[in-house]
Amino acid sequence: MNGRADFREPNAEVPRPIPHIGADYIPTEEERRVFAECNDESFWFRSVPLAATSMLITQGLISKGILSSHPKYGSIPKLIFACIMGYFAGKLSYVKTCQEKFKNLENSPLGEALRSGQARRSSPPGHYSQKSKYDSNGSGHSSFVTSPAADNIEKEMLPHYEPIPFSASMNESAPTGITDHIAQGRNFS
C-alpha cells in the first residue's frame, strides 16, 4: 500500500468519461432541432390546452360564486393567474417526454449524459458515490468504506438535539415537559 485510502471496489468497472454538460455547453444541430421541437410541442400540445382548461374552470367557478371576483378588475386577475399556472404545468408535464427524445439521439453528448444519469447527480470527477441502502446486493452492507475518524467528523458537524418530552395535554398555557408531581414533591415548610 502507498498510504492512501482506496475507496474503489477491487473488481469495479471504471465507467467511461461522460462529457461535462454545463452552462458553457454548445448543443449540436440535432440537439437544437430537438430543443425547438420540444418547445413547440410542449406549447401547442400541453401548455395551450392546460391554460385554456384552467381558465375555463376558473371562469366557471367565478360564475357559480365559488370563487369571488375582484371588486375593481372582475375575474381578470384570477383568469390570468390560471392561464400562467396552466402554461407552466404544460411545460413541466412535457419534460419527461423531451428527455426521452434526447436519450434517443445517437451521437449526442447531452443524450449520453441523460442516459448515464448525470443530469440527476452532478458529482465532481473522481468522486465515488455511495450505494443506496435500498440497493439489493444481498449482503445489506454498503460497499463504501469510511474510517472512524470520518464518522467522528460527521458526528461533530451534525447538530445534536435533545428530545423534547411529549405533553399529552392540549393545554398550551403550561410549558411542555414540566409536570405537577415534581413541583408538588417539594416541601417549603
Walk me through the structure.
The protein has 189 residues and is mainly α. It has 6 helices and no strands. The chain has helices at 29-64, 76-93, 95-103, 109-116, 148-157, 180-184. The longest helix has 36 residues, at 29-64.
| Shape descriptor | flat
What share of the residues lie within helices? 40-55%
Radius of gyration: 29 Å
The assigned structural class equals mainly alpha
Alpha carbon gap, first and last residue: 74 Å
Number of helices: 6
Beta-strand segment tally? 0
Can you summarize the main beta sheet? none
The arrangement of helices and strands along the chain is HHHHHH
**What share of the residues does DSSP label as strand, in percent?**
under 5%
Q: Could you report the average pLDDT, rounded to the nearest whole number?
A: 75
